[in-house]
Amino acid sequence: MNSDNPIYILGIESSCDDTSAAVLHNDKILANIVAGQEVHRLYGGVVPELASRAHQQHIVPVVDKALKQAGIKPGDLHGIAYTQGPGLLGSLLVGSSFAKSLGLALGIPVFPIHHLKAHVLAHFIADPDMSPPPFPFICLTVSGGHTQLLKVADHNTFEILGETTDDAAGEAFDKAAKILGLPYPGGPEIDKLAQNGDPKKFTFSKPKVPGLDFSFSGLKTGFRNFVEKNQRSDPEFIRENINDLCASLQHTIIEMLMEQLVVASTQTGIRHIALAGGVSANSSLRKILQATAREKDWVTYIPPLQYCTDNGAMIAIAGWFAYQDSSAGKSSDAARARWAINE
Ligand code: KG4
Ligand code: ZN
Fold first, then answer.
1. What is the mean pLDDT of residues 151-170?
2. CA distance 11 to 307
3. How far is the CA of 279 from the centre of ligand 1 (A)?
């Protein structure tokens, strides 16, 4: 997608624990800067108040760095996209207040963006390492805060086929990692250790969930009970079995995701399957998705990692679509901690 007049959009993401800013030139990324927050590692999870304070510290340098890397000045921007929700309210307020103030100062439109739509729209960033899926496609969004199975009919039409009724898939990784004494975020740690483990060594029961929904909280409780029971008879149980525990837990989570994905594809007849969200970084999920794709004749779409985890680029591309739809927001738009994608 190209325009004769170059359009520059700044995208700002601050819904959880990453402060990110990206600059888009039409649909191409010129800069995508992410500042993570190490402070949460001490607590084994995101502490909302600390996240909000860290966003305040990061937002100006991150935006400044993105503009410098893109080689443009604030006055060159045509619009600013920011995450309006869903997410942690204090974190959202930092990005949304900053974006609206800068938009007002520069006299340019601001575009309030739905974080989960942006995860999906990241597939439309013009990048030689990926190609956009054709409509309609199915997107499995798996992150630390969300697990959703979507039918995407166009850039604006998202039908929820299924979603988690409790914990998100990333949360299941993070909470299991905490039980094993691994640092936060636990997903990458489990992924790494699982590579030397046996995914069939331990079996964890999977819940019966109606339709295409997911549930991960029972798995977390079952995992904790299993580990604690074994530790009572063998205090070194975790240390001696860490790789197998990680591989078996990861295997169960992936099976739960893949089972619903297969049903969703069969029911809708859609064979274009996309992944989004931080958990799509998981090496085993990627492998199993590719193997299933060969078996089922699917075409799969997995963006490069920097567009899967929380990032400003996905907000900026959603802003690029909003810019073309002339759907600018208002300064009175409030940050929304809760917000359904089909609302
Ligand atoms: O999309 P994201 O960056 O932030 C949210 O919107 O939540 O996703 C972060 C989540 C965390 O739960 C993290 O543990 C998980 O993605 N994650 C992984 C991997 N890399 C990140 N989970 C499993 N395997 C990975 N390699
Ligand atoms: Zn996210």
1. 97
2. 13
3. 4
